[in-house]
Structures are given as C-alpha cells and as structure tokens.
Batch of 3 targets.
Target 1
Amino acid sequence: MFGLFKSDPSKKLQKAYEQKLEQAMLAARNGDMRANASLTEEAEALREEIEKLKAS
C-alpha cells in the first residue's frame, strides 16, 4: 500500500541516460570527440545501473 507513492529510481536513471546520450551526440556534431567519448562512457554506466535495477 505504501509502495504506491514510492518513486521509481529507474525512471530517473533512464532520463539521465537519455540526456547523456543527447549531450554526446551534440558533442560529436561539434567535433569534440573526447567529450563524446566521455559522455558515452557515463551513459553506458547509467545503462548498466538501470539493467541492475530491472534484474532485481
């Protein structure tokens, strides 16, 4: 009953993941491949966290 109002952490992580991917895409368009690589790496770390939450 009290779980009804509990926030879902995977939704917050999913939103952060999508933002990181968008930032990486914009960095690639601007020619900043180093920023693209680091943002993509951060996005993949978020994706792994999302997968862990879904598995449990």
Target 2
Amino acid sequence: MARMFRVLGFWTLVIALMAFAGDMYEFALLFFVQTAVFFLFGYLNFTERTYMLMFWGYMVVAFLGFTYWSVFEMGMPV
C-alpha cells in the first residue's frame, strides 16, 4: 500500500509539471504539495488500514473542496 502512495505521488508530479508548463501556477503549486505529501506518506510504512483511512480522508476533503469551488466560487455560466 505504501507503494501506491508513491505511485499517486508520481502522477500528481506529472500533473503538476504539465500545469506548470501551461502557466497555471496555483494549480501546479497545489499538485506539488500533494506530491510531497504522497511521497512522504509512501515512505513512512504505516499499516494498510492506516493507508486506507488516510486515502479516504483525502478523497473526502478533495471532493468537498471540488464541490465547494464549483458551486460557490465559480460564476454561473452566461
């Protein structure tokens, strides 16, 4: 399970680099931070249960943030 967090770190790094190349600096910074956290968690060797709980916590926070942003921060389409 620790290896999967390193895989998540790799893919968030790829997304961050593509965002940085596309001049989306805030988006890239968000994914660089996620990359660092995923790599850090990947090398801490927690139990599989802990990794699953951290992943589901991450998913809840990510989906709540996405929902908040898309409903309250984005303007209505014209």
Target 3
Amino acid sequence: MSAHAVIEAPTSCAVLPVVGSDTLVPLVDGRSVPYANLDVAASAPALQVVADRVNEVLPLYASVHRGAGYLSQVSTALYEAARQTIGAFVGAREDDVTIVTRNTTDSLNLLAGCVPVQADGSPGRVLVLDVEHHANLLPWQRTGGATVLVGGATVAETLSGLRAELARFPYALVAVTGAANGTGESRPLAAGGAAAHDAGARVLLDGAQLVPHRGVSLAASDVDYVAFSGHKTYAPFGAGALVGRRDWLDSGTPYLAGGGAVRNVTLDGTTWQSAPARHEAGSPNVIGAVALASACDALAALEPGELVAHETELRARLVEGLEAIDGVRVVRAWADAVDPVGVVTFSVDGSDAGLVAAYLSAEHGIGVRDGRFCAHPLLARLGFPAGAIRASIGVGTTGEEIDRLVTALRTWVSEGAKARYEVVDGCWVVSDDPRPLLQVAGLSGLFATAAAGNITAAVGCGPAPA
C-alpha cells in the first residue's frame, strides 16, 4: 500500500466492509439507528474478511511448535506464515525479527527490556516527546533512562529541539509516534530518523495510529523498530507486533519466563532461545496472529492511495463542519503538521467532554471517545487537562456518519440535550435510562461492570484528579 499516492476521485463510502456496520443501537427517544462508530482509533471493528478467516481456521486450531499431530503442524504453519505476512506488511528487512505480541503497549514494554545498558551499567538513554501516548512513555520512564522532551508549537520547532537534545547526550534510542494518538498529527519520519541516526541512536516508531491509516515500511524509512496493534488494525483478536533489528532482541531480557522461550532448563540455570521465540513464552495466540495477517493482506490489497484519499476527504469534511459551529474548536498540537490521519480532536465551549459524548451516544447513536486519550501530558500542555472529544475515521466510515456527527453537535450547541444526564462513578449517563439492553449473554446493565469495580477513574472517564 502506498502512503502518499492520491486517488483522483475519492469516495465517502466505506472502503472495506467491517463487522457490525449494520448494527442498530437504541436511542433514548425509543428509536433505533445504525451505530456510527467514530471511535476506531481506540479499537477498530474487525474487517469482514478477518472474521471470515478466523471462522475458517478455528476448526484447525491445535497446539503450536512442539505438537506431532497433524493439526498441530497445520497451526504451526499458520502461525509462522502469519508472522511472515505481518513483517512484510511493515516492510521488514531480511534480518529483521517479527515478534507477535498482544498490542503496541506489550511490544514497547518488551523492547524496553532490550535496550542495552550504558558502560557504567545504568539504563540506556531513551529520548521521547511529550506528545506520546502512554504506551510509548511509561515503559521508558519505568526503566529509568527516559528523557521527555516537550514539543514545540510547530513540527519544525520540535525537530530543532530534538536535534539539540541529541547533541547533548549519547542516546541509545529515540522513541517517536508515527501519528499522535490525541490529534492524529504526524511528523516527517525521515527528518526525525536521520537526526537520531546521525547522533548514533536507533529509532522506534510507535505505529499504533499510523500503521492502520497510512502504512509503514521499515526498509524505506530506515526506522529500526515499529510496534502496532491488531485491535487498531481491524483485527481485534488479541495480537499485535514488534518488528525490527535482531541484535537487541536476541540479547535482551526474555520478556516472559516460560516454555517455548528456552533451549534447555536445569535446576542450575536456563539457556534461552534467540528471538522471536525468546520473547514468546507460553502458548502463542495463533488465531490473533492469523487475524492480524489477514487484515494486513486486506489493507495491502487496496488500490494505491485509496485509503489515504478516503480518510483525507472525510477528515476535511469533518474539520470543515466542526469549525463552522460556534464554540467548537479543533485541537491541534502543531500549526504546520501535514498529512494527518483520520483522527480529529475537538472541544465544545462551556460543555464537559464526557457529557457531549454521552449525548451523542444516547440521542444520536454516535460513538466517540472523550477524555485524555492516554496522552495526559499532551492534553495538559494544549490546555485541555479535563479532556476533549475525539472522532476517528477508518475503512468502514462513511460520509453519512460524518454528517450525522456535525448535525448532532450543531443541535447540541443550538438546542441542548433532550434527555437528563448525571454523573455515575465518574462518567456521564442518562438519568433513568430507558434504553433496553441488547440481548447479549452475561450483560445485565450498561454500567454494571464499572459500578461493581469502580474502575472509571482508572480508565479516564473524568478530568484529571485535583
């Protein structure tokens, strides 16, 4: 898939069919409408071809790698073929390793244990920006070798600050986002990567948002490592990937201690495998890996530039609609950012972000994300410590869904909500919600789990604690 080619006649129809695109959800007025899923940046629905592939291979599932049975051999072949497909999708070089993980967070925690220590035994230095989401911030902070650089008002200013910091100390790794989780904005990979390599550092690309929207090539970009998630890449079956240079992964601390990661075990010690097995202890997620590989194949098969054109058209349509509404402001990190992916964050003057999101769901059947998007430092720096609202576009998004969101926000500003809302366990909900639950086994209430565990403060429904 080409990242920059342009389709002459973009369309506002879905690019690929996704599971659940025709799901009806109830509104507080008693109607049911098709769900408008504008929260794909958090977790994207499964592509229909991915779901079909999972159904195809489930009867073939068995133990992997050490099973003598026929289906064990089939499952092993499926898993290893998926590994090759996943690596190829992100342009893996001949000597690169593809490790199947759970998600981007898992991948970056794994890599954090592989960064070589300094000559004095202290943690290897890692440079990150404050625009990173928590998956690409917390693992480095925990190792003790992280320096967090505050981004500038522009991409150019941020790159200048990056070069200056790289000149101050010898860094082992520069960990950067491909597209910001909070705003969808990206930076020129070539410029940032060249600055890091010129200073003797390697480059880790957090591809959680970039890979499913634009694609990445390690070989073409000369990035050293990329991490991404299946659940954001239309394969929400519990797999992600870390792909990159072998030497650190072969010598780094095994991510999990257990079977499959070892060559030999005695009571006196353990001899570990090289990567990827070194970091894949336990029974691997065969179905998740196959699902992710299927999604990679489907995205790679799109016409060059088709996905970019789709997202560019719908994003522009959304931004134009939002900026035409009094009191609605689009949140941007950089004034000169180019080629943003299909993620748009905004605020509504005088309105709590969680309340607006609850209104959009209950009265219009629209799903968006509210809060701080696992990017607390960035939202605080941009002036939104209590959070904002994020709408995100994917292969299944249509122009009608974008128009529904804009119309609903215009109604909110001019007329307000029809239903009554209150805060329960930190989240806005409809008072005496009349909507019936969908008939799903084990579901007794929309907020039953959250209320029982009181987890809403942890997941970020409310503003930052005082």
